[in-house]
Amino acid sequence: MTTIVFDDAGRGWDEESLELRRRLHCHRPDFNLTTYLIDNLGFIALSWKQHGACTIRLRPALASSIGLAAALFALADLAPQRVIVSHPSETCGLELFANVGRAVARIEELVADARQPTCPAFLKREVSLEAQLQAGGPLAALLRYWANADQAYEPEKLRALLYGALRGRFVVVEPNADRRHLTIMDIGPGFVVYDKSWLRIARGLPMEHQPDYAYGRWARGAFDQALERTQACVDDVDAVIARPSLNDTIRAQYRRVVLPFRRGPSGSPCLLSASIVDDVDLRRAARGALS
Prior knowledge:
CATH topology of the largest domain: Beta-Lactamase
CATH architecture of the largest domain: 2-Layer Sandwich
Structural class: alpha+beta
Number of strands: 12
Helix content: 25-40%
CATH class of the largest domain: Alpha Beta
CATH superfamily of the largest domain: PAS domain
Shape: elongated
Radius of gyration: 27 Å
Strand order of the largest sheet: 2-1-3-4-5-6
Number of domains: 2
């Protein structure tokens, strides 16, 4: 079988080419170089025998436009009776076509779909304090406590609410002197996106240092806003959060309140956040805006 790989400049190389390996500074790879080039550098591979089907392998989201055009011209010149299109897929990554035209149309479709704007992993929608107070429930009770306590944080008075109606879904953070860091001072056991081992070590960590660091950085934005404005923030959140310990992701949909407090005789600032699970769907609107 002959295999040619097309680079991002449209040049075709035999997959065993020593010159290609020299240019890539990869003389003796201990891995499949062609697969690496397709998956990471956007190369396209075209394989065929003297008689039979051609196979074209690509990663649609990364495929070089110039390289793809060169590969498709080469495919047309070969004029095979059957074409196999190989691409990463959650279902079947191999598709068989009876002629070149249908294969090319499918490849163009795959590339167009892969390059559409994607919905952000983390979405939020602001909720007014009035709306939350009217909605009632434990978050409304927490807001009323915050207002009536003149922002004084007394954890014992909140314990029944935090561990009862809010089911341990809370976190307390404290800024350092220059407010560059927010440190987790307390965290409840009710967050299902975190495993128990992380919850055991969370106290004392910067709030960004969560299992999904990107989510931690994003979530900090609401805390910074509440701290800067010294006002309560209420948001609906729809987030896809990575769980490295389980090698998966989980979609978390919830309503969150972030409250600026002052604690102890010194009146040092801290922030209390609590949330309730909600079926808020912010992705449907976001997908509609991208289409």
